[in-house]
């Protein structure tokens, strides 16, 4: 068998906007707008540069609900570039871009194969030799049942066989379950490589034979998608041995940092520490713009300063200004203040005064978090609230409860050093 | 905790004031207005909780009487341990220092513990308050009253929970209101709805994308079809337009072709034939005219030549005359110089003869020229001069030395005489050695010392003798005293004893036994005392006698030692006398030696020393002057000898010099300097003689040259046969000769010029004749070329040839125009064929028809293209679809903002709910005991008029129930009763607080002013009750209030405040 190489990518979510990002100004705003496209361009560049034999796209190329023609055209453009260079592409659709979802009647270039709603197998020659057989299936719609996509199985004489599938292997709370599979189920298909899609963080489920991996999304789009995002560059030796290397292709990178204020005395110390975090992030971002959230934690004298009027807004503004002037740019998404006063909560909770009483009430809710929903249902059960707001999870409400505890302290206890 | 004392410094009117010994219970402070009661109240609050921050704008009681702004409190905790809490004005509300009972330093936490964690506001509203704070409740709404009571017990720093709740409610309201319009979340909902609607529209457009593409393809096909048709029509229209444009040329072409066919064929004709003909004819005419003019000029010139005469003799002598003329200036100058040189030469000769005569009688030019005035001769003179000068200087120096020596000798003689005279005036001393005299004086001094020490010894001996006598006297006295002491009697004592017994018996007999016994006893006591006193005296005397004995022994001892000293002294005196005698003998004083003798001898020695002192220098000077005189004499002799030698040498040199002068032929009396001057003179004269010879030579030369010139002039004049000039002087001759020559030359020049002119005219005439012949030939040739026999025929043929050429050109022009429009070759043939078959009318008709068709087609195409453009634009818009992306982006931003706002709203809402819930529980669980305690106080203060205080559950108001079971709202109570209720609530809370924390001191500033006397008394009673647990400081300015306090408990300490001082009344 001839050796060959290919790129395994998934979850491009082209033209899907960033979530949770407040107003972004300056150059970086334009960059973020096109970030998913840039990331896909990087995939195409990577394929051309490494002269790979084919490209595998394991679903969720775009969000059908977004109706982004631009996304489909750009995708087709990218595949055209590859086709011109003699690189074939194999695409299956996932839950976000099912076949019945809206799509433009585009002319796919030769060498592009889009898998249909039935499991099919396409052979791929390397040189004169028929070496690879790719099994794949696209979601006909996003209401598939658990049995969807069963029947992947080795067949034919091609020595290297690939399963291209958008599905959930194991459980991942961050993603909805679609076509759930266990690793064992995948193993019984007796394929050589499982090119999976759906999970946004890069994960190698099995490094060996078969090789099972999620490449993750090509571009992080919200604060839960921090760190490098990219695709897998896979080399298959003459003996069928697989070696896959993760290649970051993201055009901008998300970061989340925690900063403890315990050892900080003055606002100047805080600014210095924050600037340090920005510098660290800039280095970690490897020459690309970064979007960062900073959570301030711990307890210390700065807590009362941070609780004062515009302090956090001013700090954010200042860091954004500095971040925008630097290269690569760092955009501060948000500075979250989760600090608390130096007051010993446990002992205050024991005290017989009013504050103690309130803290005990909060503690009661903490022990029975299901009651928290009732407190906030007015907004979330509102006609428009139901439409635009997700009903908060208990974990979210518990987080809010922590904030509330600090808020109560701030409201009821006079600042100690005024 | 209670206050034991305080130190207040620089605080309002107070300065360095200490108040100590405060009672643990009630303390009343009486002071007039402005005596500092409120200041003290503020002082307590400030020391415990700090100076009010700047923004509160409260009075911080700055020092009015000086001092450091602050002070300290001595606080006793429950276990009687004393803490000193001090605070002075400064940063952060005034730095706090706390001294712990063990002397170490504490911090704010200690104060917090001491005050039972009471907050500043709690302390201010409940524990240390003035009438103003008491009344503050009254001015508030019911809700606030209630909340303030909770706030007082809530352990909360902020003024009121109600305010906190109100603030929270406002914040929540700003974020979200069900059915609201402006709150943040409501606005975001609205914006999101709006953006979703826009997105919906955009999505609907996207859904039409495929349809759009199909439509676009159809329109494109139609456009292509239309373009083909339009092309065909446009091409035909262009052809018709060309044919129309070519029509005029086509007609002209046909006409010109016919004209050309009719013209005779003259294919060749000389180019520019007519102009060439006319040019040749004009040339011929001009040449003929020129020739006639030249013939006339030749005749004129020949006539002028015949009239000119040439003078050849003058011309032959031209060079000589010019030479002569050139030498004329030199000749005139030489003649002038000759006239000037003659007298000068004679003068020179005369002067030289005089100068030579001055050198010597026989001096002439020969001697002058032969005299040796060489440099070596001058050097010889210089050498002689130097030698003579040197020797003369030596001789003069010797003479000066001699004169000097003579004068020195005279002075020495005078000095020697004076010294001799001075020496003889002083008598010669006997002893000439001063050391001998000095030694004698020293001996005398030593002798004086020996005599003096002898005298001292004598005095000592006498002193010893006197002391011996004193001591003997002392001894006798001591013996006497001893005797006296040994004889004091004892009998008076015995007598007294006896007398007492007798006296006792007598009195006993007379007044009774008892009295007698008493007196006897008294007398006996006196006598016993007397006896005891006598015995004591006796014992003292014995002691004294013993002391005296000791003194006596000491005196005797001293006497013995004095005797020894006396003997020793006598021996020393005798040895001293011997020493005196020995030394006197040595000096040479005979007989008995006294101090006066020694003095005399010393005076003598002094006189001798004086004499010697004066004599010694005079004698010394005399000897020295004598020696000097001898030395001067020797020096004079030496100088005289030297002078004579120098003179001799000078005279020898002078003789040598005179010899040299004789030899040189000069006078012998000349000095070298004079000889040098003569040498210089000879040199000058030689130069003078040289220049005279030159002058003579010059004179002769000039004479010869003048004569030669004159001769030459005569010869030339003869040559030109101008003999009349021989009589004239040379200058005139030369002038006339030059004039004649110039005239001859002028005539010759004129002749030559005319001759040349004539030749030129003749040559030109010949040339013109040749040219005429040439022109004739050319004319012949031209006719021949034009195939003509004469001018007329030539001109006719030329016209025909020109006409033919122009017709041909027109033909070509039209042909070319047609080619431009219809192409060349076959195209042109086809074009002309078409023209052949056309007519202008037909062409016009066809053109109009085609133009209309094209216009219509163009309109249709444009409309199709527009619609294609529109469709394509829409397609491209959809394809780029950035708008939708942007909208989705905006939506996400709004969603993010909504999430934030919702979270914030949730937090605030929860916070509010928890506060409310906490408050409910607190009301239920905490408030009741406070109300209960308060009721007790309120009942007591109102003397049972009001029995109960009610805080209805879930309702935020307070009611009181009277003895008649009537319920009263707060606003139904009188001001005094309301104040009494508030006071009761405070006391209730203070009681309740004391149960769970350390009781704190309570400070009240004149709060009873609105109470009637009965209730004042009742209130004081409750205070006394409260004072069993809490220390109370009560400030008042009313003495009657103090009286009431005193009436109820007279032990209550009353402190008086006055003029910044405080003392117990």
Question: What can you see in these coordinates?
Answer:
The complex is a heterodimer of chains A (418) and B (1065). Chain A has twelve helices and 17 strands. Chain A is an alpha/beta fold and 418 residues long. Chain A has three domains: 4-248, Metallo-dependent phosphatases (Purple Acid Phosphatase, chain A, domain 2), CATH 3.60.21.10; 252-342, no CATH class; 346-418, no CATH class. The mean pLDDT of chain A is 90. Among the domains of chain B are: 211-269 and 794-811 and 838-879; 273-317 and 730-785; 318-370 and 672-719; 375-425 and 624-664; 434-597. Chain B is 74% helix and 7% strand. In chain B, strand 1 (2-9) and strand 2 form a beta hairpin. In chain B, helix 7 packs antiparallel against helix 23 (882-941), helix 8 runs antiparallel to helix 22 (840-880) and helix 25 packs across helix 26. Chain B is flat, with a radius of gyration of 86 Å. Classes of the chains: A alpha/beta (418), B alpha/beta (1065). Chains A and B meet through helix 3, helix 9, helix 10, helix 11 and helix 12 of A and helix 5, helix 6, helix 7, helix 8 and helix 22 of B.
Number of strands of chain B: 15
SS class of chain A: alpha/beta
Mean of pLDDT of chain B: 84
- Structural class of chain B, by secondary structure, is alpha/beta
At CATH level 3, the topology of the largest domain in chain A is Purple Acid Phosphatase, chain A, domain 2
Number of helices, counting only DSSP H or I runs of 4 residues or more of chain B: 26
Q: Measured on Cα atoms, how large is the radius of gyration of chain A?
A: 25 Å
SSE pattern of chain A, N- to C-terminal: EHHEHEEEEEEEHEEEEEEHEHHEHHHHH
The amount of beta strand of chain A, in percent, is 15-25%
* Biggest sheet details of chain A: 6 strands, mixed
The interface involving the most residues is between: A-B, 57 and 69 residues
Amino-to-carboxy terminus distance of chain B:
25 Å
This entry's quaternary arrangement is: heterodimer
For the report, how would you describe the main beta sheet of chain B?
Answer: 6 strands, antiparallel
Name the CATH class of the largest domain in chain A. Alpha Beta
- Rg calculated over all Cα atoms of chain B: 86 Å
């Amino acid at each position: 068998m001839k050796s060959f190489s290919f790129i395994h990518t998934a979850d491009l979510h082209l033209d899907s906007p960033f979530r949770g990002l407040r107003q972004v100004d300056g150059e970086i705003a334009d960059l973020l707008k096109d970030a998913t496209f840039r990331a896909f361009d990087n995939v195409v560049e990577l394929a051309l540069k490494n002269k790979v034999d084919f490209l595998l796209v394991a679903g969720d190329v775009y969000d059908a609900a977004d109706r982004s023609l631009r996304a489909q055209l750009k995708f087709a453009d990218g595949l055209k570039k590859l086709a011109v260079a003699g690189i074939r592409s194999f695409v299956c659709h996932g839950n976000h871009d099912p076949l019945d979802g809206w799509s433009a009647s585009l002319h796919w270039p030769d060498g592009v194969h889009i898998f249909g709603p039935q499991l099919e197998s396409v052979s791929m020659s390397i040189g004169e030799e028929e070496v690879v057989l790719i099994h794949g299936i696209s979601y006909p719609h996003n209401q598939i049942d658990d049995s969807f996509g069963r029947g992947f199985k080795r067949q034919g004489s091609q020595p290297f066989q690939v399963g291209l599938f958008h599905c959930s292997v194991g459980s991942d709370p961050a993603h909805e379950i679609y076509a759930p599979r266990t690793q064992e189920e995948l193993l019984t298909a007796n394929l050589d490589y499982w090119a999976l899609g759906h999970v946004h963080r890069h994960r190698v489920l099995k490094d060996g034979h078969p090789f099972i991996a999620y490449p993750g999304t090509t571009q992080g789009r919200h604060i839960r998608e921090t760190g490098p995002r990219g695709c897998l560059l896979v080399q298959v030796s003459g003996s069928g041995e697989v070696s896959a290397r993760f290649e970051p292709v993201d055009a901008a990178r998300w970061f989340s940092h925690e900063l403890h204020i315990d050892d900080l005395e003055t606002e100047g110390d805080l600014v210095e520490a924050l600037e340090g975090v920005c510098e660290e992030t800039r280095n970690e971002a490897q020459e690309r713009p970064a979007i960062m959230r900073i959570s301030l934690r711990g307890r210390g004298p700065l807590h009362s300063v941070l609780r004062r009027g515009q302090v956090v807004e001013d700090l954010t503004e200042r860091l954004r200004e500095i971040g925008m002037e630097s290269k690569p740019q760092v955009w501060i998404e948000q500075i979250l203040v989760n600090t608390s006063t130096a007051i010993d909560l446990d002992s205050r909770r024991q005290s017989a005064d009013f504050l103690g009483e309130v803290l005990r009430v909060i503690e009661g809710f903490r022990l029975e978090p299901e009651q928290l929903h009732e407190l906030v249902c007015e907004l979330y059960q509102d006609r428009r609230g139901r439409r635009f707001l997700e009903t908060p999870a208990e974990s979210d409400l518990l987080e809010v409860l922590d904030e509330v505890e600090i808020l109560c302290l701030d409201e009821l206890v006079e600042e100690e050093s005024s | 905790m209670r206050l034991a004392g305080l130190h207040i410094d620089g605080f309002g009117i107070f300065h360095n004031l200490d108040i100590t010994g405060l009672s643990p219970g009630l303390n009343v402070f009486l002071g007039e207005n402005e005596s500092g009661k409120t200041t003290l109240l503020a002082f307590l609050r400030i020391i415990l909780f700090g100076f009010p921050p700047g923004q509160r704008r409260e009075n911080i009681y700055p020092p009015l009487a000086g001092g450091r702004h602050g002070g300290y409190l001595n606080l006793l905790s429950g276990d009687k341990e004393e803490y000193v809490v001090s605070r002075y004005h400064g940063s952060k509300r005034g730095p706090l220092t706390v001294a712990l009972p063990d002397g170490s330093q504490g911090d704010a936490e200690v104060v917090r513990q001491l005050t039972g964690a009471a907050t500043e506001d709690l302390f201010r509203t409940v524990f240390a308050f003035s009438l103003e704070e008491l009344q503050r409740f009254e001015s508030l709404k019911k809700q606030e009253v209630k909340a303030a009571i909770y706030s007082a017990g809530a352990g909360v720093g902020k003024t009121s929970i109600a305010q906190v709740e109100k603030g929270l409610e406002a914040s929540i309201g700003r974020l979200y209101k069900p059915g609201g319009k402006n709150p943040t979340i409501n606005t975001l909902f609205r914006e999101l709805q709006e953006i979703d609607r826009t997105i919906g529209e955009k999505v609907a457009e996207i859904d039409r994308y495929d349809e759009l593409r199909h439509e676009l393809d159809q329109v494109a096909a139609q456009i292509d079809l239309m373009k083909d048709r339009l092309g065909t029509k446009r091409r035909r229209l262009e052809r018709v337009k060309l044919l129309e444009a070519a029509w005029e040329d086509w007609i002209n072409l046909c006409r010109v072709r016919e004209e050309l066919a009719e013209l005779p064929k003259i294919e060749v004709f000389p180019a520019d034939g007519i102009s060439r003909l006319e040019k040749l004819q004009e040339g011929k005419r001009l040449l003929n005219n020129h020739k006639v003019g030249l013939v006339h000029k030749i005749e004129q010139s020949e006539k002028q030549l015949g009239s000119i005469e040439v003078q050849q003799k003058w011309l032959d002598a031209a060079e000589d005359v010019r030479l002569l003329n050139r030498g004329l200036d030199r000749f005139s100058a030489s003649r002038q110089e000759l006239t000037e040189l003659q007298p000068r030469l004679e003068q020179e000769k005369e002067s030289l003869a005089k100068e030579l005569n001055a050198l010597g009688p026989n001096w002439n030019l020969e001697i002058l020229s032969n005299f040796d005035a060489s440099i070596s001769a001058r050097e010889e003179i210089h050498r002689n001069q130097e030698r003579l000068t040197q020797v003369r200087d030596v001789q003069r120096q010797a003479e000066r030395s001699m004169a000097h020596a003579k004068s020195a000798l005279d002075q020495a003689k005078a000095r020697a005489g004076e010294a001799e005279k001075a020496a003889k005036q002083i008598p010669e001393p006997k002893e000439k050695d001063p050391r001998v005299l000095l030694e004698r004086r020293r001996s005398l001094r030593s002798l004086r010392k020996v005599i003096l020490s002898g005298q001292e010894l004598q005095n000592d001996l006498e002193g010893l003798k006197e002391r011996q006598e004193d001591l003997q006297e002392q001894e006798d006295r001591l013996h006497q005293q001893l005797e006296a002491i040994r004889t004091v009697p004892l009998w008076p004592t015995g007598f007294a004893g006896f007398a007492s017994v007798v006296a006792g018996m007598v009195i006993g007999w007379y007044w009774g036994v008892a009295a007698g016994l008493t007196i006897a006893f008294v007398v006996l006591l006196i006598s016993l005392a007397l006896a005891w006193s006598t015995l004591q005296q006796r014992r003292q005397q014995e002691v004294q006698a013993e002391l005296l004995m000791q003194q006596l022994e000491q005196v005797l001892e001293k006497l013995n030692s004095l005797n020894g000293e006396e003997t020793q002294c006598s021996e020393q005196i005798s040895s001293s006398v011997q020493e005196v005698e020995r030394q006197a003998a040595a000096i040479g004083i005979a007989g008995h030696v006294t101090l006066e003798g020694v003095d005399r001898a010393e005076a003598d020695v002094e006189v001798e020393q004086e004499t010697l002192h004066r004599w010694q220098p005079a004698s010394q000077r005399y000897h020295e002057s004598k020696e000097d005189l001898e030395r001067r004499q020797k020096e004079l002799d030496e100088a005289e000898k030297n002078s004579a030698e120098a003179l001799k040498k000078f005279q020898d040199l002078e003789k040598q010099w005179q010899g040299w002068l004789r030899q040189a032929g000069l006078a012998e009396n000349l000095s070298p300097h004079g000889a040098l001057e003569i040498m210089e003179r000879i040199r000058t004269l030689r130069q003078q003689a040289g220049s005279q010879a030159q002058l003579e030579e010059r004179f002769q030369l000039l004479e010869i040259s003048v004569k030669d010139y004159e001769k030459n002039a005569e010869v030339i004049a003869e040559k030109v046969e101008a003999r009349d000039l021989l009589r004239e002087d040379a200058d005139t001759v030369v002038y006339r000769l030059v004039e004649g020559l110039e005239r001859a030359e002028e005539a010759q020049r004129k002749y030559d010029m005319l001759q040349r002119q004539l030749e030129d005219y003749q040559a030109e005439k010949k040339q013109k004749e040749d040219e005429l012949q040439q022109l004739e030939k050319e004319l012949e040739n031209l006719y021949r070329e034009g195939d003509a026999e004469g001018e007329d025929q030539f001109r006719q043929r030329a016209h025909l040839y020109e006409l033919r050429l122009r017709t041909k050109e027109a033909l070509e022009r039209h042909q070319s125009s047609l080619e431009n429009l219809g192409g060349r070759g076959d195209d042109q043939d086809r074009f002309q064929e078409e023209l052949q078959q056309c007519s202008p009318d037909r062409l016009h008709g066809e053109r109009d028809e085609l133009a209309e068709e094209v216009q219509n087609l163009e309109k249709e195409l444009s409309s199709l293209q527009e619609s294609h453009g529109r469709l394509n634009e829409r397609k491209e818009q959809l394809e780029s679809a950035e708008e939708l992306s942007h909208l989705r982006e905006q939506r996400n931003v709004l969603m993010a903002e909504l999430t934030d706002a919702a979270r914030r709203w949730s937090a605030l809402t929860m916070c509010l709910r928890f506060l409310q819930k906490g408050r409910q529980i607190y009301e239920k669980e905490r408030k009741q005991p406070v109300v209960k305690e308060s009721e007790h106080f309120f009942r007591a203060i109102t003397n049972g008029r009001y029995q109960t205080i009610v805080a209805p559950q879930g309702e935020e108001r307070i009611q009181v129930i009277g003895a008649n079971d009537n319920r009263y709202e707060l606003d139904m109570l009188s001001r005094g009763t309301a104040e009494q209720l508030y006071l009761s609530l405070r006391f209730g809370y203070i009681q309740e607080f004391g149960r769970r924390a350390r009781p704190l001191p309570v400070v009240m500033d004149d709060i009873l002013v609105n109470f009637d006397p009965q209730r004042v008394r009742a209130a004081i009673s409750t205070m006394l009750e409260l004072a069993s647990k809490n220390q109370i400081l009560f400030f008042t300015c009313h003495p009657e209030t103090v009286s009431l306090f005193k009436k109820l408990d007279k032990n209550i300490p009353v402190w008086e405040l006055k003029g910044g001082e405080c003392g117990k009344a």
